[in-house]
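Field log, afternoon session.

UNIT: design team B
ACTIVITY: writing a sequence onto a fixed backbone
BACKBONE:
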């Protein structure tokens, strides 16, 4: 069976970002000997959290991980569902039951399917000469669990089949704007019913610290003339009679459920409100605007801007977002919400599109060269791509589904003073994050043989 690292782990820049984050001064020792459960573990933030914890394990930390994923996602071995840095290659010596990688992939009824995982190194294509970092197994274990958190019965079954959980990070949600229009009921139920399951699971533990991942969307739209970024104790207007409101309303209710459970069961919990996050782990079908910009840029297309571009948003690199999550988990106050944002990352949407356009030409050229899609010389190939895919932003009207899923908010910046007081700040600049993301996405497109988009006017 062929083996390869996930594309993001073939990018030295991303691996270096993870290693740098893992070296940040946090009370990592609090995790020693503990069990950490993560819902949404195969999602954008979940994958980065697993990579970050793997880096800590390679530094000598000892903990066990329970990774919860949806039942309809592929089992481990998939680039999207299993981070290779947490597993051993099939032909590697068995390191023993205490090593990360000797975990299982099970459903909540205890079934363990056949093991299919055999990650290893691959030779990068010519344009991507970044040597993959060594991903040796380290102390700890990981177990993948397939569960439908919205089925109303998972909490009891999970509690009966899992060891005691010390830290529980709830990141499972439907966050695709297109899903807000195409699957509005699932969008709401995944958040509300899934969060109820996680809260029920948390209160069944002898002692558990719970962290809920929420969103900037809970703030809604400002109608008061407010000129400053949103603080955690503020809120705006959300129109409940729109499809787009299902996601932020459900997240508001998730936070309210946390308050209710804490009052009734004395739960130890906190909330992280995430901004618009991007990074190497975004899905290739992600419909969020920033993701669409990056995917188009990595594929050699013009950057599609389906709005005025004047909206002001807080953005964040996924590695810094994962570090914010761990900071609040280990340092956050009980019952507090924390905005994960920073003034240096507050941008107009159109400005982000233009920054990505500036960098995407060079990245796409490297991808075309590396994937050997042309018999031309390297120079001729790069010149051909430069002509076919100008570095530009293309304004176009939104499709009906895009328009339904778009946020109506014009200013969604967040004040991060509370999180910064815990010692957190973003380690990556906007431009470096764009570069690292474009390179990783381009590598994934090469690995998955995704056709170039140049010349399609995307």
């Amino acid at each position: 069976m062929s083996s390869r690292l996930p594309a993001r782990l073939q990018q030295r820049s991303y691996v270096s970002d993870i290693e740098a984050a893992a070296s940040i001064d946090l009370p990592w020792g609090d995790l020693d000997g503990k069990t950490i459960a993560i819902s949404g573990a195969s999602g954008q933030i979940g994958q980065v959290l697993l990579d970050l914890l793997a880096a800590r394990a390679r530094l000598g930390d000892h903990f066990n991980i329970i990774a919860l994923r949806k039942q309809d996602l592929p089992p481990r071995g998939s680039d999207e569902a299993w981070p290779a840095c947490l597993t051993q290659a099939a032909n590697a010596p068995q390191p023993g039951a205490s090593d990360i990688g000797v975990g299982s992939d099970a459903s909540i009824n205890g079934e363990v399917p056949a093991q299919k995982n055999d990650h290893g190194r691959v030779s990068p294509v010519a344009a991507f000469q970044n040597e993959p970092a060594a991903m040796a197994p380290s102390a700890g274990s990981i177990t993948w669990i397939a569960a439908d958190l919205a089925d109303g019965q998972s909490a009891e079954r999970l509690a009966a089949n899992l060891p005691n959980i010390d830290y529980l990070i709830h990141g499972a949600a439907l966050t695709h704007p297109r899903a807000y229009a195409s699957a509005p009921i699932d969008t709401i139920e995944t958040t509300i019913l899934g969060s109820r399951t996680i809260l029920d699971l948390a209160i069944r533990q002898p002692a558990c610290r719970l962290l809920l991942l929420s969103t900037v969307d809970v703030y809604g739209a400002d109608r008061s003339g407010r000129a400053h970024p949103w603080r955690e104790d503020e809120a705006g207007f959300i129109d409940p009679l729109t499809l787009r409101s299902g996601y932020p309303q459900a997240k508001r209710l998730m936070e309210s459920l946390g308050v209710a459970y804490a009052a009734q069961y004395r739960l130890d919990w906190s909330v992280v409100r995430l901004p618009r996050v991007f990074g190497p782990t975004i899905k290739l079908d992600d419909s969020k605007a920033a993701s669409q910009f990056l995917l188009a840029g990595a594929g050699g297309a013009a950057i599609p801007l389906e709005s005025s571009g004047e909206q002001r948003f807080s953005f964040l690199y996924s590695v810094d977002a994962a570090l914010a999550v761990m900071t609040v988990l280990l340092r956050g106050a009980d019952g507090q919400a924390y905005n994960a944002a920073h003034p240096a990352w507050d941008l107009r949407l159109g400005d982000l599109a233009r920054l990505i356009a500036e960098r995407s030409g060079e990245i796409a050229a490297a991808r075309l060269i590396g994937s050997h899609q042309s018999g031309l010389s390297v120079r001729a190939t790069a010149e051909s791509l430069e002509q076919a895919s100008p570095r530009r932003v293309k304004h176009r009207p939104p499709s009906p589904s895009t328009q339904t899923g778009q946020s109506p908010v014009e200013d969604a910046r967040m004040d991060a003073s509370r999180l910064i007081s815990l010692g957190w700040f973003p380690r990556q600049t906007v431009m470096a994050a764009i570069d690292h993301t474009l390179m990783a996405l381009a590598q994934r497109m090469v690995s998955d043989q995704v056709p170039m988009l140049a010349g399609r006017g995307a």
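LOG NOTE: The domain at 7-281+314-346+411-429 is CATH 3.40.50.720 (Rossmann fold).
NEXT ACTIVITY: expression trials, pending approval
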